[in-house]
Amino acid sequence: MLISVLTGTHLALHNTRGEGYIDTAVKILISVVLGALLLAGLYSLFNDTVMPTLTQRITDMFDYAG
């Protein structure tokens, strides 16, 4: 029984399969950077293109003078 436990422990400690902490950290970092770039692009698009047009349309809609 003791030999079985020691063998199992030895195999578990020397197991090189699976995903490490560095791989997971790199994946999270890449996803955060890509998300930030996507949000920055959407913010730039909405701020420069959509919002002035939307503001102008709302102003025209409530402009009772003519």
Topology pattern, helix = H, strand = E = HH
- Give the mean pLDDT: 82
How would you sum up the major sheet? none
In total, the number of strands is: 0
> Strand fraction band?
under 5%
How far is the N terminus from the C terminus?
A: 93 Å
Helix proportion range: over 70%
Radius of gyration: 29 Å
Instruction: Give the structural class.
Output: mainly alpha
Shape: rod-shaped
Number of domains: 1
Which residues form runs of ≥5 with pLDDT under 50?
none
> Count the helices. How many?
2
Describe the 3D structure.
The protein is an all-alpha fold and 66 residues long. It has one domain (2-61). The chain has helices at 2-13, 21-61. The protein is rod-shaped, with a radius of gyration of 29 Å.
Defining traits:
mainly alpha; 0% strand
Question: In terms of topology, how is this protein built?
Answer:
Layout: H1 2-13, H2 21-61
Summarize the structure.
The protein is mainly α and 66 residues long.
